[in-house]
Write a structure and sequence with these properties.
six-stranded parallel β-sheet; alpha/beta; Rossmann fold
């Protein structure tokens, strides 16, 4: 298996460490080809080269051995990039040319990329990176593209969505539901039967007592203790956590 990491920032450094740990401890046969990032000033991360911009994924997507993982830490940015990539993937570019409906984004691509066909795959293959030190309980499901960092715990019956981050030492207790593109920062603890909706961020060391729901696109501040449901599209901080502002 070959892997390309999307984004060349701090979160990708941890993903590289996870891959190296899986190679060493689990003897996993995986090769990091490099990274892609729209910041043209970034040339390498650790010993791995930045191969190009995110739109250059078209050059690699038809290699049946190549998988991708999103190394972007910010939830909304992570979702935006995945959406852009999947839009590129879904286009049959030559078919679009025949119909005369190339988008401005596609017209801006180099000719070799405009000639790219997506015939060998029917979907983008995302890699799910789980550090060998993480503890994963029985009947746990983890969505594609999710990263589970060192010493995290995900207990029995929990469901983790697509492209999430379960950060270092986070504890997800039994029967949790974690939505797509959520991020549980280092040291977060969610008790049993907690629901964290899509795009929500739980700050470092925050805690959520059992049976609660935190709505979509919400931020829980570092060290906060959530003792009642928190609505969507807001920021809540403190002990106990209280909503201090709404957010887009």
């Amino acid at each position: 298996m070959k892997l390309i990491i999307i984004g060349a920032g701090g979160n990708s450094k941890v993903i590289i460490d996870i891959i190296k740990a899986r190679q060493k401890i689990l003897k996993e046969d995986i090769e990091i080809l490099g990274l892609i990032d729209d910041d043209t000033g970034k040339k390498e991360l650790r010993e791995y080269s930045v191969l190009g911009k995110i739109s250059d994924i078209c050059k690699y997507i038809n290699n049946e051995e190549t998988f991708f993982i999103n190394g972007i830490g910010d939830n909304k940015t992570r979702k935006k990039i995945i959406s852009e990539i999947e839009t590129l993937f879904s286009m049959s570019l030559r078919g679009a040319e025949r119909r005369g409906n190339l988008t401005p984004e596609i017209r801006s691509l180099s000719p070799d990329m405009q000639d790219t066909r997506f015939e060998t795959r029917d979907r983008i293959p995302y890699y799910t990176a789980i550090h060998p030190s993480a503890i994963i309980g029985s009947n746990v499901t983890i969505g594609e593209g999710t990263v589970v960092m060192p010493n995290a715990v995900i207990n029995i019956g929990s469901q983790i969505g697509r492209h999430c981050i379960i950060n270092t030492g986070a504890i997800v207790e039994h029967d949790n539901r974690i939505g797509d593109y959520a991020h549980l920062a280092s040291g977060v603890v969610t008790a049993g039967n907690v629901t964290i909706d899509n795009l929500t961020f739980l700050g470092t060391g925050s805690k959520v007592i059992q049976g609660l729901e935190i709505g979509e696109n919400t931020i829980i501040g570092a060290g906060a203790v959530v003792v009642k449901d928190i609505p969507e599209n807001c920021t809540a901080v403190g002990v106990p956590a209280k909503v201090i502002k709404s957010r887009d």
